[in-house]
## 1
Amino acid sequence: MKFTERMRRWFRRSSLASPSEELREALGITPSATGVVVNEMTALRASAVWACITLLSGDLASVPLLLYRRRDGGKERAESHPLYTVLHDAPNDEIDSFRFVELMMTHLLTWGNFYAEIVVDEAGRVRQLWPLAPWLVRPERPDPNGPIVYRVRLPEGGEVTLRRDQVFHVAGFGYDGLVGYSPLRMAAKEAVGLALATQEFGARFFSNGARPGVVLSHPGQLSEKARDNIQRSWNAAHAGLERSHRVAILEEGMKIETFGVPPEEAQFLETRKFQVTDIARIYRVPPHMIGDHEKGATYASVEQQSIDYVTHTLRPWAVRIERAIRQQLLTPRERGRYFAEFLLDGLLRGDTKSRYDAYAVGRQWGWLSRNDVRRLENMDPIEGGDDYLVPSNMQVLGARTEVEAPPEAEVNEDDPSE
C-alpha cells in the first residue's frame, strides 16, 4: 500500500488542469500540421473531443457492472463474492464505481490504456483497485519468453516494478497486444489540431471586433507619436466584441479599408462544423449526440442511431473491459463459474408502446413471466407472477398427435334393457 499512498498524494497535487513537471515531461510537445500542440491534455480544449469523451465515459459508467455466477441453464448475481462489491459498489475507499468506470473510459479514450494497482487479501482475493496514471506506467517484457512487468515512475524520482498479477490493465486498440494506442495521437491529432486552430482563430477574430485587419490611411505624413495616438484611440473605440459595429468617424481625409480574407470566404464556419463530424467519426459517436443536428435527423433515424451507438460503440468497450476482468481479476478456477457483465439492455429500451408490445409477445410465447416483465420495468414482483404461459395449440414439429378415444361404456349384464 505504500506505493498506492504515494500515487494518491501525487494525484492530489497534479492534474490535467494544473500539471506537475513530471506530467509536462510525460506529455511532451506534439505539434500538428497547423502548429497547434495536440496531446491528451490540450485535446480536451476542443469542444467535440470533450463532448465525445464525457458522453462515452458517462454512459458506460451509468450502466451497472455486475458479477454473475453460472448455473444450469442460466445465471445469478454473485453478491457473496468479494469482487462483486469491488465492481458494483466501490473499488476502493475513495471513489465509487461510477467514477471508477468513468476514469477508466477517460484513460482509454485519451491514452489508450487503463492501469490500476490490485490489492488482495490473505486469501488472494481482490479487495481494492487503485487507478494509476497512464503516463507514468510503462509495460515491458524483459524476457521474450517471460511475463509482462510494469515500470511505474514515482513522482519523487525513481521507479518501481509491479508484477503482472499486481496490475489490472485494460488496453485499447494496438498492434502488439501489450499496450493500446492513444486515439488522440494516432488518429485524431490533425483533426483535433485543426479544430483547435479554427476555435482559436474564431476567438481572436471576435476579440478584434470582427475585423480580420483594418488599414487606416492618411493623405499626409504622420509622426510616430501621431500614429501611436491614432492606433490607440482606434483600438480603444473599436477593439473587442462589446465595441464591435460602432460607427467610425474619420478626420483629415483618412480612409479605412479591411485587410484579409473574411471568414465566410474562408469557409470558417463550415470548417468548424466538419471538424465536429470528423472527431465524432473517430470516436464512433453519432453527431447528434454531441450537439450536431445539421444533417436533418428525424426522430426515427435518431432512435436507430442511438441503438447503433449502444451496439457498435459502447458494447465493444464493455466487452473489452469484461474480458479483462475475467482474465485478470478471477482465478483460473473461478473463470468457468463467474463472469462480469455490463447491463446494457436498459440503454436499448424503446418507447413505452414498443416495450409493452415486446413484453406481450414474450409473455404469450412463454419466455417471460409477469414478474420478469415487472423486473424489467423496475417494479416489485407479485405473488404468483413467476408462472410461464404455454400456447395450447402448439406442438413439436413432426410429432404425431394421437387422438384419445372416449372410454367405452360398461355393460351391465343384469340389466335386461341392455
Note: Residues 125 and 331 are 9 Å apart (CA to CA).
## 2
Amino acid sequence: SIRFADVDGKHEYIAGFTREGFEFGHYHQHVMTVFHRCQGQVILDQPADCLQSRDCPLLDEIDTLPGCPPMP
C-alpha cells in the first residue's frame, strides 16, 4: 500500500508540505511508519489531527493497535 498526497492538483509524495496549518509531510510519514511496523497489516489514517503532529501519542502505542503483530 502506498498513498500519494494531492498537492495542488498533483499526486506526489511530499516530505515537508504544509497547507493551512496541516503538516502533510508528518502525517504521511506517520501513516507509513505504522504500516511498516505492523508488517503491512494496519493502515492508520485517523485521527489525522494527531498523526500530523510531531508528538502524536498513538505513535507510542503502535504495538497495541488492533491487527498489529507483536515484534519478533
Note: The longest helix spans residues 24-37.
